[in-house]
Each structure stands twice: as C-alpha cells, then as structure tokens.
Amino acid sequence: MTPPFLHLPPTDRLLSSRTGWTRAHWEALADRLLDALVPYATPGFAQYRLPGRGSWSGVVSDGLEGFARSFLLAAFRIAGAGDSADPRLVERYAQGLATGTDPASREAWPRLTECSQQMVEAASVAVALHETRPWIWDRLDTRVQERVVDWFSGFVGSRTWDNNWRLFQVVSEQFLASVGAPYSRSDIDSGLDRIEDWYVGDGWYTDGDGQNFDYYTGWALHLYPLLWSRIAGEDPETGRTKVYRERLRQFLDGYQHFFGTDGAPVHQGRSLTYRYAALAPVWMGALADCTPLPPGRTRRLASGTMRHFAERGVPDERGLLTLGWYDTFLPTTQPYSGPASPYWASKGFLGLLLPPDHAAWTAREQALPIEESDQYTALPAPGWLLHGTRHDGIVRLVNHGSDHNPPQGDAEDDPHYATLGYSTATAPESAPHARERAVDNHLAVLGPDGLPSRRRRINRLACEGRTASSWYEEAGVRVETTSVLHGPWEIRVHRVDAAAGATVREGGHPVAHEQRPHAGEGLGWALTGTAEGLTSAVVGLFGWEGASASVARDVQANAYGPHSATPCLTRTGHPGGRSVHVTLVALSRDTVHPRALQESIAVTVTDDTVTLTFPDGTAVGA
C-alpha cells in the first residue's frame, strides 16, 4: 500500500488496470519530492544541502548536486505543465541560477574544472534550462544569462573522464551553442564519436572501455545523445539522431524484460541509489518516437516501478530520497555519492515532457510480457540471460559478461558485477564484511587459509538461447561455468581446475528480510526463505557427493533487509586436476522440493561432456 504521507490521488483501475496510476500520480509525486527539498535550500536557493553522508567532493559540490538534479525534475514538471506551471517553482530555480552563478555570493557554485563533479551537475542544468527555456532562460536578466554562460564555459576545451562523462560535455556545450555562446564543435563531435567505440551491438553500449554493462547504458549512453538531439534540433530521420533512435529501439526490446511484475528492476550494477532513473530510456523511447513498446505497456512498466518504490517507503516520510535502495543502505552507494545523489532519479520523470494527451498517458495499460508467459531472453552483447517466471513475477539475470573492470591492469570483484546471478527480488551481499566471504551466487575454490577465489575478470565463451558460459582464473584456479535455463530453474555446470585437497563451495541467491530467514538442509541441498514466501535453494545434482549443506547468515549486509541468508554447498578434498560439479539454483515464491528435483533431473558426465535430462524428456548438452 502506498504510504498516506505521499498524498497521491485515487487510483484509476479503468485506465490503469494493473497499477492504478495515471499522470496525476506522477505529477503529485514530483510535487512532493520538490516541495520536500525547500527546507534544505540555502537562502538564495542555489544549493540544497540534504541530510546524509557527504561525498568525496565536499559540501558545496553536494549542495550544487541538490540544485542541479532537482532542477531536472522541476524542469520536466514545469515543461509538462506549460503555462499552468507553478510560478513559485519557476521562481525558485530562476533565483537559484542567479545566486549560484554569482561569484560574490556565499552560495556560489564551484567553477567547472576538468574531471570535476561539477561537470556531471552542469549537464542536468543544461538539459533543464533547454526544456524550460520559455519559462526560465528567456526571462533571466541578461547579466544572469551571461554568468550562466561563463560558468558553462569551463567545459570548452576541457577534459572529462573517458566514459559516460563525455556526454555531459556534449549536452552542455550544445546548450551554449543553442543560446549563441562560444563553444567547441570539436568537443561535441569527439564526445559523440567516442561513444561509437563503446557500441557493441543490439542496442548496447559499454560505459567506457571494458565490460561495463549496467543501468548507465540506458540512463546515460542512450539518454544523453537523444537529449543532445533535442537541444541541437537535429532532424530525427537523419544523421546521428536516426542512428540513436534505432539503437534505443533495439535496446528497449530486451530492456523491457528487466522489470518484475511488481515493478522492481533487476538489482545489478553501480549507482543503484538512482532507483527509478532506470525508467529514463523507457520514456525516451516514447519521447523520441522510437519505442517498440505499445503506449499502454510503456506506462504500465514505468508506473509499476514508480509504485513499487512508493509502496516501500521511497521517498521517505520526509519526502526525501535516501542513499540506498528502499531505505538507507550505504553499501549500495559509491564514494562519489552524496546526500543529493539519489535525485538522478529525476530522469525517471522524463515522461512528463510528453503532453497529457499522448497515447502513453491515455492508452489503457497493457501487460508486460512476464505477466502473460515465462520469458527467456539472451543478450549476447552484455553476456546476460534474463529469465522471468509468470507465476511469481521474478526476473533473474544470469551474468556471463559484465565485470566492470578495465581491459588491463588490476581487477576487482565488485559484488554488483562479479556474481553469477541477480534478480528483481534479491540483492547481492555487498557490505564490506560480506564481500570478504564472497558466498552468494559464486563458485569459489577455498585455499588452505579459507580464502575464496575471486571472479574478477569474466572471460566469455557463449551466450545464446537459454545457455551462457564463461570462465575466470586466479592463482592457479580456473573455474568454467555454463548456465542452462529450464522451466523456473538455472542449472550451473562448473568445470573446476584446482590443486588436490582444495575445497569447492557453491552459493545461491541471498534472500533478505526484516525477519530472520528460515533455513533447511539435507543431503546435497540447502535452502532458505523469507516470511513473505521467497525461497532460495541450491541442489547438488552431480559432483557434490559428501558435500556439507549450510546457510550462510549475515546482518546489515543486504539492501533488501537487515537479516540475510544464502544457501550453500561445500565439498572438501578436490582430487586435483579437473572436477565437474552440477548445481540447480532456484529462486522462487513457490515451494521448492530439493529431493524431488535431485531425483527428477538426470546428469550424465562422459569425460568432459555433460548432458542434462529434464523431467519433460528434454536433453541439453552443457
């Protein structure tokens, strides 16, 4: 149930049979978020200094971030309302622009210097100024306009980080061009040219060199090029814009499968505290008229996600977005995250730029694919399999391609990238003490000191249909894993090369809740579940003879709740050389019967060839 403190209008089950939400709900939520910021504004409204942990950029940068990211939300609200826009909202941000760009002001914004956080925030200001031009920019005093231009001029000829940041320079300098100010055509073209190096096909970009696949593909690498096009006024049927529209169409065809029936996005990647910014590419598809989704499905997906968070206390009772997923959970964040960082969620309100009579707002809601049948989606570009089950509405992501490491040099095993599985119902164990153990969704070889091998660099082998595979290597250990999807299950076939006497451990999906999850263990299987009926299990099918079954518990380690638990299997005494281990991994809101699964799925291993035979007679080589 949506908390009453949000003061949302009544639901409309005729227009929106699945979520009940309409444009009025979106407008009311936007207003609540914007109004809640006012008590934290500096006197001249140039900064919003919110409560919470500061970023590594300092309090002034964090205050600018509060202005810039909320200005993006205000811009969508103002432009969407047109001449009916709240004049107080318009004045608040106009005053903030005047104050923040005044060098003599105590609230003055930091200058734009190379690779500074200000570059990120400037892009939001540029987009917001463009979208609200008739209400704000055109009405600013000439001296204020000149100061704004002077502030943006720090971009010209400067250097940014070589990832999605290149696009902050692109949109900001394009705004300068649009108001007749000096800019660098070379900066814009080189930034747009650079993302071509990162395009890997099927609508997917990596965020910089390497295998950096996450939500930045949608909320940055697809979003900003088309925002640039809006500022530049490029013909959508020609030039770069035509290419960007076609790529977004391809991307959304798979991206629609990232959301569960309850609206939850798959919990994978960095900056997850931006939450419903994940909706930005969905709305951009409608705004740029390049979406493969019917209008009613666009709104059903977007409203479902927005409602999902609202029902779970986002925003909180103060009307604020906190550093976390549902409530505050700092391991979901990065050192660059400040108290206003979550307001990149403003991108999720992009749909307010669509007029109220647009079909995305007026068409009756249409079901998501997962609401009609089980879904299996192979995404070879990022190396992922998506697996959605209709009966419980859960989407699982099987990861054989994204590790968020540079192509060369040192590599890390960030739990938001390194594990084999993610889902819409679970989050990885990401607190520092949990990362040391590296249990969940990982096949580890434990050394004599008990330390686990780490899946840092993911080396791809295949991703097609319902099967994907990859390998990792560390300190003389090599683990090759093939994932096979069948029915509601994932079967993992591991080929492990290790020294004699080593210990092999397999972990499943972690579940988390306000209450301590229950546990069950048996011969070759372990499971754990929440009070709400979510069950995670690992079931040994081959190579786990004599293994011990257990449930690894933790506290304050998971974004989904304070009590978490992960089922695991552990086998000691590796024979040396290569061993084969086959595990069924289950995550379901249905009852899981481990012994029945062991008895009904046959595994045949001949030399290095593994054949799985399922209860329906289907045989799959792995």
Poorly predicted runs are none
Radius of gyration, whole Å = 25 Å
Strand order of the largest sheet: 8-9-10-11-19-16-15-14
Q: Major sheet, described briefly?
A: 8 strands, antiparallel
The number of strands is 22
For the termini, the CA-CA separation is 44 Å
Mean pLDDT: 97
The gross shape turns out to be globular
Regarding quaternary structure, what we see is: single chain
Q: State the helix count.
A: 15
Helicity range of the residues? 25-40%
β-sheet strand percentage? 15-25%
Please identify the structural class as seen in this structure.
alpha+beta
How is this structure best described in words?
This protein has 622 residues and is an alpha+beta fold. The protein contains 15 helices and 22 strands. It has helices spanning 23-37, 59-81, 87-100, 117-131, 142-152, 166-178, 185-197, 216-232, 239-255, 280-287, 295-310, 359-362, 415-418, 432-437, 594-600, and strands at residues 199-201, 204-205, 375-379, 384-388, 395-399, 421-423, 443-446, 459-464, 467-474, 477-486, 489-498, 503-507, 511-513, 518-522, 525-529, 535-542, 548-558, 561-571, 577-588, 602-606, 609-613, 619-621. It has an 8-stranded antiparallel β-sheet, with helices on one face. Strand 21 and strand 22 (619-621) form a beta hairpin. Helix 8 (216-232) runs antiparallel to helix 9. The model has no long low-confidence stretch (mean pLDDT 97).
